[in-house]
């Protein structure tokens, strides 16, 4: 059970980020406790990716503070890189690279990388070690992207739309891996459009709308808040319904 006495893996306070005149994130605050799976949900363009990119130290906030285990990930990028693992976008890997070569390449970026063989085994990729990236199935590519995010032995791992485009079996396989990470003490920040995924996996969820936090809580708490907002009993609501109620209600 998550409590506020647990150390913060990620603490975002009053985050603001604009692209030109477009306000992407507007005074957003959230706190992710160490060891939890924390979901970020919200409509397209809500500012989810911008928020996690600030947490990864890839973008400089215009205002507010971001701390990962107490460290400013933009200012102290070198240190933050050893703490935060990020899932890679498909386009970042060469088609001809084999699974083992990709892991070894990424391992070379870190002073104390995880053992390649152990990672292959952990992600069920041992028999694919010599398979080129382009020949992997969608689920295998996803497992490789998890392996690459784990190469630096991070304490926080960020997944942005981990299961988009996967079939139901591969989605469930990814979910099991995310749960295993949490069981191994790794904090997981999960950006997703799938309410069922958040409901099944996340200890807590932040709902973001127009760069602001519309709600935070456990999936059960959000379902109850959404149902009460819409005037329905929560027994007739799921997280999908709650997200719609809480994000369309505010601006209409
Ligand atoms: N590099 C950029 N330059 C200009 N505008 C950007 C840039 N990146 C994002 N935006 C804009 O900022 C807003 C927030 O984008 P962001 O990608 O953070 O949202 P998101 O919630 O992750 O969206 P989605 O669910 O569609 O991936 C959007 O209006 C988007 O068009």
TrEMBL record:
Family matches, as InterPro entries: AAA+_ATPase (IPR003593), ABC_transporter-like_ATP-bd (IPR003439), ABC_transporter-like_CS (IPR017871), ABC_transporter_ATP-binding (IPR050763), P-loop_NTPase (IPR027417)
Domain of life of the source: Bacteria
GO cellular component annotations of the record: plasma membrane
Membrane topology: Peripheral membrane protein
Domain ABC transporter: 10-235
CDD domains given in the database record: ABC_DR_subfamily_A (cd03230)
Subcellular compartments: Cell membrane
BP GO terms, sorted: response to antibiotic
Main localisation: membrane
Protein name: ABC transporter ATP-binding protein
Organism: Trebonia kvetii
């Amino acid at each position: 059970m998550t409590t506020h006495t647990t150390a913060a893996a990620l603490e975002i306070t009053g985050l603001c980020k604009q692209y030109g005149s477009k306000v992407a994130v507007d005074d957003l605050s959230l706190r992710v406790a160490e060891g939890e799976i924390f979901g970020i949900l919200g409509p397209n363009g809500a500012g989810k990716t911008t928020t996690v990119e600030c947490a990864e130290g890839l973008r400089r906030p215009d205002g507010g503070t971001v701390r990962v285990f107490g460290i400013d990930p933009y200012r102290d990028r070198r240190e933050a890189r050893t703490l935060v693992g990020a899932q890679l976008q498909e386009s970042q890997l060469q088609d001809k690279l084999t699974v083992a070569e990709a892991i070894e390449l990424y391992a070379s970026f870190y002073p104390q990388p995880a053992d390649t063989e152990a990672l292959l085994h952990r992600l069920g990729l041992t028999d694919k070690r010599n398979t080129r990236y382009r020949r992997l199935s969608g689920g295998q590519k996803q497992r490789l992207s998890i392996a690459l995010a784990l190469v630096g032995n991070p304490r926080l791992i960020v997944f942005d739309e981990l299961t988009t485009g996967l079939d139901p079996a591969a989605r469930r396989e990814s979910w099991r891996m995310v749960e295993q990470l949490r069981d191994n003490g790794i904090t997981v920040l999960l950006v997703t459009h799938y309410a069922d995924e958040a409901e099944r996996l996340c200890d807590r969820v932040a709902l973001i709308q127009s760069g602001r936090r519309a709600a935070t809580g456990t999936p059960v708490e959000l379902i109850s808040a959404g149902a009460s907002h819409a005037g329905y009993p929560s027994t007739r609501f799921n997280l999908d319904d709650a997200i719609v109620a809480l994000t369309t209600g505010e601006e209409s």
